[in-house]
Structure prediction request, 671 residues.
Amino acid sequence: MKLVFALAGNQNCGKTTLFNQLTGSNQHVGNFPGVTVEKKEGEIRRYPGAAVVDLPGIYSLSPYTAEEVVTRDFLLGEHPDAIINILDATNIERNLYLSLQLLELGIPVILALNMMDEVSASGGSIDIKAMEAELGAPVVPISAGKNQGISELVDRAMKIAKDHIVPARVDFCKGPVHRAIHAVAHLVEDHAAAAGVPDRFAAAKLVEGDGLMLERLQLSENEVEMLGHIVAEMEGELGTDREAALADMRYEYIETLTAKTVVKTGETKEQQRSVKLDNILTHRYYAIPVFLGIMMLVFWMTFGVFGTFFSDLMAAGIDAVTAAADAALTAFGISPWIHSLLIDGVFAGVGSVLSFLPVIVILFFFLSLLEDSGYMARVAFVMDKLLRKIGLSGRSFVPMLIGFGCSVPAIMATRTLASERDRKMTILLTPYMSCSAKLPIYAVFTAAFFTSYQPVVMIALYVMGIAVGILNALLFKALLFRGNPVPFVMELPAYRFPSGKTVALHMWQKAKDFIIKAFTIIFMATVIIWFLQSFDFRFNMVADSADSILAAIGRAIAPVFAPLGFGDWRASTALITGLTAKEAVVSTLNILTGAGDASSLNLVLGQMFTPLTAFSFLTFTLLYMPCVAAMAAVRRELGSAKQAAAMMLYQTAVAWVCAFVVYQAGRLLGF
Prediction:
C-alpha cells in the first residue's frame, strides 16, 4: 500500500529544500482540489511506494488564510500516513507553535530540526533525546541544504508511518485552559468521532473560536450554549480573550520546553551576517536603488553576456536541423504543401521560439539565486511602504513578483491575500508586470533595433509596466477600491547561500514548461497561422501570403494600429496570435515574413519598423491583454466573466493609449 507523507512547516524554514532532497526530480506541481493553492507532490527516492506532499508554509492551523485552510483540510480529510514537520532550529520557539497543533491531530509526526549546522556553528545545542521525551514524538537533526540527516529522517518516518506510531503526548496545557479544553473534549467527543476529527484537536479549536470547526461538528444549540459558558468561565479566570489564552498556553509550554532542551549562545553567523547586509539592502534610502541596480545587472548578464551567446548557439543548431530536414524532404520528393507546413510552419515557428530557451533559463537562474538567498523577502518588505501609497500592502508584491515569471500562477497566488479588496486590486494590476513569455519578443526587437542598449531598453520596458501599474492602482484606489490595505506581517529569513539543487530544479521546471508550451500551444498556433497564410478563402494555396486569409484579417484590423506606427498587417496579425501565448508573436512574424533564421528576421523587421515604431510595438506588447490562460485565471478568481472581459478590454485600451503616446511623442521629438 502506498504511504503518503505530509511535509508541513513555517515559511522560510527550508521546506522546499527538504522536499527537493527527499524527491529529487520525481515531483510534479498541481493545485489542491477545488482551490488554486499550489500543491507539490513527489515520490521519495529509494522508496517507490512512498509519496510526500509539500503543504503550503503556515504558522498555525487556524483558518485565517487559504494556505492554512488547505493544509488543515488535507491533514484531516486525506489522512496522510505521517507528518514530517520541519522546523528552523535557529528560531525554534516560533516553529514549535505549529508543532504543538500537529501533535494533536492523532497522526504519526516526526520533527525535523533543520539548519542544525548553523546552531552548532554558533556554539548552541539542542538536547534531541530530551525533546523527544517531552514531546512524545521522534526528533531528527538535519541540514537540508547540505543533505545531512536526511537518510535517518526518512528511515524513522517510514517506521512511524508503517507501524502507525502516534505522538505519546498531546496535552500541553494546564490551569483554566486545561479545564476548558477537557470539558469541551467530553462535550464534543461523539461529534468529533462522526466528523473524523480528534476530539482533543477539535476541543482546542472550539475554545480558540474556530468557526469552521464549529460548523464541521454540527453541535446542537444547547451544546453551543454550553461551549460558550465554558469559554466565558475560562476568559473570566484568565482576564484575557480565548485566542490569547490558547496562544499564551502554547508559548508558556514552549518556553519551558526550550529552557530544558535548548542552549543558545547568541545569534548565528547567518543572523549576524543578515543584520549587516540589511543595514544596506533594507535601508530607507539605499534599498530601492540597490534593487534596481541588481535587476539591471541581472538583465545585463542575461541578455548581454550569457544569453546572446547561448541563444545564438541554439539558433545555429536549430538552423542546421532545419536545413537538414529541408534537404531530406526535398530529396524524398515530399508534397510541396507538406514541405511548406513542416519547414515554413513548424520549424520556422517553433524553432524561432525555442532559440530563446537559454535566455529564459539564465534569467530564472539569477531570479532563483535572489529568491533562495532571502533577498526577495526583503524586497517585499521594502516595497510595503511604497505599495501602501497606492492602496496595497507589501504582501501584494509577492504575486506581482511571480507575475514577472508567469501571470497565471501570479493571479492564483492572490488567494494568499486576506483582504478581498487587496486580492481583486492585485489581480487587476498583476498583468501589467511583464511575464517571461514576452522575453522572446523583447529579445528579437532589441537585437534588431537597440543592439548596443539591450539591457537598458529591457529594464525600461519592465519599469514602464510597473509605472503603468502604479498609475492604474491610484486610479482604482480613487474609484473602485476605497479604503486601506490590511497590515503586512512577513518574516525576514536569514541570508543563506542558495541550494544548487533547488536552483537547478527551478531552472529545469521553467525549461520544461517552456518546451511543453513550444510543442503544444505554440505548435498548434504555428500550424493554424501557416494554414491561414498559405490559403485564400477558396482554400487555394497562394504563392504570395499577401493574398491569404490571414492577410485579409490582418488588413481589416491594421488601421487600428496605424496611429501607433505599425500599420503592417503582419504586425497586427502577430498581436492577435499572441493571445494564445505571447511567444507566438515571434513565431508568427517568422512565418509571415518567411525569414527562416534570426539574422534574416532582423533584416525583415528593419524594413517593417523603425526604432521608434519598434519601441511603440514593444510598448503595446508589454501592456495589452494577457494570454488566454491568464484570462481564464482572472475569470476564475474574479468569479465573473463580465468583470474579466471588462478588465481585458480596459487593459488593451491602456496599451493602445500608451503606445500612441510613445509614438506621437517620439515623432514630435524627431526620433
About this structure: The first strand starts at residue 3 and ends at 9. Confidence is low (pLDDT under 50) at residues 30-36. The radius of gyration is 29 Å. The longest helix spans residues 287-332.
